[in-house]
Design goal:
This protein has about 210 residues and is an alpha/beta fold. About 30% of the residues lie in helices and about 20% in strands. The strands form two sheets. It has an eight-stranded parallel β-sheet. Strands 9-10 form a two-stranded antiparallel ribbon. Helix 1 (about 10-20) runs parallel beside helix 7. The longest helix is centred in the middle third of the chain and has 11 residues, at about 85-95. InterPro entries: Aldolase_TIM, PRAI_dom, RibuloseP-bd_barrel, TrpF_fam.
């Protein structure tokens, strides 16, 4: 089981994620998010991540100018596109930067499932997340789950990661229902929005059966 801890913004919680066995660590570049990090801040954090742990930059409808600036400074291994980027835009970003791209696809009901297959043609990985409420400020990190049975037993052409409302107390059940081999958490290991808890990070990775769980 590979676990991604997203929205890290300080050395203490980043170290906690690394020590507990996270396979991915995520930095959020989206000003409306309580987890937003500045480029310089992310650079400092990313430089401390050991080799072998994937450093992911989460962006929301970012333009090339921002991606150019961020990637010049921050040693990133994967781009996570979490906005309303079209499959064409996703393909363009992947070609332009030569980095693996993960696209978040929001799910509320069965009508949302075909989009997963469309994006699977142009990405390296999929992030299957709960669709945000209509007037939400944030495209993710809202602590909401979707009906996991919607994707039970489904497979796509690329690896995928389950996100949305996961917590230390429900992640094992989510994995059981969906067959996920990768999970992503942000708000589910926070005491207040944007403030990660080192103990909860370790509990989540253990509950998911991440590296130090077995």
């Amino acid at each position: 089981m590979r676990v991604k801890i997203c929205g890290l913004s300080n050395v203490e919680t980043l170290n906690a994620a690394v020590t507990a066995g996270a396979a991915y660590v995520g930095f959020v570049f989206f000003k409306k998010s309580p987890r937003h990090v500045l480029i310089e801040q992310a650079r400092t954090l990313a430089q401390t991540v050991p080799v072998g742990i994937c450093k992911v930059a989460l962006t929301v409808n970012a333009d090339d100018a921002f991606l150019d600036e961020m990637l010049e400074s921050v040693p990133i291994d994967m781009l996570q596109l979490h906005g309303s980027e079209t499959p064409d835009r996703v393909a363009d970003v992947r070609t332009r930067y030569g980095l693996p791209v993960m696209k978040a696809v929001g799910i509320a009901d069965a009508d949302d499932l075909p989009a997963i297959g469309e994006y699977a043609q142009v990405v390296d990985q999929l992030l299957i997340d709960a669709k945000p409420p209509k007037n939400a400020d944030l495209p993710g990190g809202n602590g909401l789950a979707f009906d996991w049975r919607l994707i039970a037993g489904r497979r796509w052409a690329v690896p995928w990661m389950l996100a949305g409302g996961l917590r230390p107390d429900n992640v094992a059940e989510a994995i059981r229902l969906t067959g996920a081999q990768q999970v992503d958490v942000s708000s589910g290991v926070e005491t207040t929005p944007g403030i990660k808890d080192e103990k909860m990070i370790a509990e989540f990775i253990r509950a998911a059966g991440g590296k130090n769980g077995h």
